[in-house]
Amino acid sequence: xxxxxxxxxxxxxxxxxxxxxxxxxxxxxxxxxxxxxxxxxxxxxxxxxxxxxxxxxxxxxxxxxxxxxxxxxxxxxxxxxxxxxxxxxxxxxxxxxxxxxxxxxxxxxxxxxxxxxxxxxxxxxxxxxxxxxxxxxxxxxxxxxxxxxxxxxxxxxxxxxxxxxxxxxxxxxxxxxxxxxxxxxxxxxxxxxxxxxxxxxxxxxxxxxxxxxxxxxxxxxxxxxxxxxxxxxxxxxxxxxxxxxxxxxxxxxxxxxxxxxxxxxxxxxxxxxxxxxxxxxxxxxxxxxxxxxxxxxxxxxxxxxxxxxxxxxxxx
Length: 316
Fold this sequence. Notes:
It contains twelve helices and ten strands. The chain is of the alpha+beta class. It folds into two domains: about 5-105, Phosphorylase Kinase, domain 1, CATH 3.30.200; about 110-315, Aminoglycoside 3'-phosphotransferase, Chain: A, domain 2.
């Protein structure tokens, strides 16, 4: 299934793109700019050497500036702790009407592009490498250093985390339910009820998470005979949160997920699978809410497609 981001066209004029990029890399022509995808950012490859990220039109303002500033700081911090290559921004523009970030391209292709083409052996080895990455990222030592550097004193956990989702459910009923069908409402109610009724779901220990960790943000060697992660990208959602957030690999099948969890150091958490399921099932509401709040019909449609997929994965 092609993701919304992969099928979403760019929302910036190519002539404006050329003008802004030329400030940093002279003599750029249109045929040297390749549009890759459009999620929170419009992402372009330039001269096959650089990656440029321009925020979605909703974020081409102070919000986008803050996004770039935060991600730049996060990447600078992680550089000293993560052995797998991650972006290192060398080009930054913080003008509110057209903020952008650029860095040298990390070799590789998104795992999502080749996952269906590779065999079980390949998937097993990549799952092991994913687990190794998360074992470091989710460690207490890196979380403590991150919290100290970014002066994070409180995180959502326990009762405050539960109340956060209680309020999200209330908003879901008011905002999203009017645009979906009754059986879809029933499914979402059931998913939330199962999650909220289990107190163990709120006893986890928050750790540093990537926050948008899926196969599209895992770069691998394009040679399908060489199962090797070459980089991890898109850290704009990185924060201290529930580590289950980074483990929602249900779409990749039980073989991949089981190996990942077997190699993951913290899989003995008794409510981990329950939280993983809930966080996976609720992904659709992020698209639906944002689309409704900002009159984005494309995102509402994407949210409905995701809702259908999630319901098929976890029927009630």
